[in-house]
Amino acid sequence: MMSIVAVKDIVGATLLQGEAEGEVTGVSTDTRALRAGELFIALRGEKFDGHDFLSEAFRKGAAAAIVSASPKEPVEGCLLLVKDTLPAMGTLAAHWRRKFDLPVVAVTGSVGKTTTKEMIASILAQTGEVLKTPENYNNEIGVPLTVFNLTSNHKAAVFELAMRGRGQIRYLAEIISPHVGVITNIGISHLELLSGPEAIAEAKA
């Protein structure tokens, strides 16, 4: 996929420990699904902290890990330190996306996103292999993880983008660099986040 040195430079990380040698074969944020050779990104959430699973990640063969703090307990492996791991993942995904010259479609809207995404992907699949957002991978974590699955075998990509606040769609769009944007409709499902339909429309645009 790319060298650890390249990862370090792209996200502007500091080498916290270990050697920045070798390649990463993929990216994971979940040690339960991590495969040997992948880069582990330690994300923090409301109910979890990826930093608590660094030892497990390296036991499973992680090539390196991106962290935003020193580990609570000693671990053996290459640690790349950044201020915030979530935007670092977005930056890395945006860089990976730009390695591929292929048509990209972004789909958003209050309802109907998944159905529309599936329809577009089905049509585009007539020209070759299509990467599409799996399940509910439509947020600031899922979209970058989907991008990392892009390969030279893909002829097109279709991403579903969910909005959880102002600026969310713009942030995701900057990662995937779509050629076409599809808005299924503008409803009232985000009134708790934004002031009205006009603000929702602006945020989705």
Question: Which residues form runs of ≥5 with pLDDT under 50?
Answer: none
List the secondary-structure elements in sequence, H or E: EHEEEEHEEHEHEHEHEH
**Helix-residue proportion:** 25-40%
Number of strands: 11
CATH superfamily of the largest domain: Mur-like, catalytic domain
Q: What's the level 1 CATH class of the largest domain?
A: Alpha Beta
Head-to-tail CA distance between termini: 32 Å
Strand order of the largest sheet: 2-7-6-5-4
Count of helical segments? Answer: 7
Average pLDDT metric: 92
Task: Indicate how many domains the architecture comprises.
Answer: 2
Helix/sheet category? alpha/beta
C-alpha Rg (nearest Å): 18 Å
- The portion of residues forming beta strands comes to 15-25%
Shape: globular
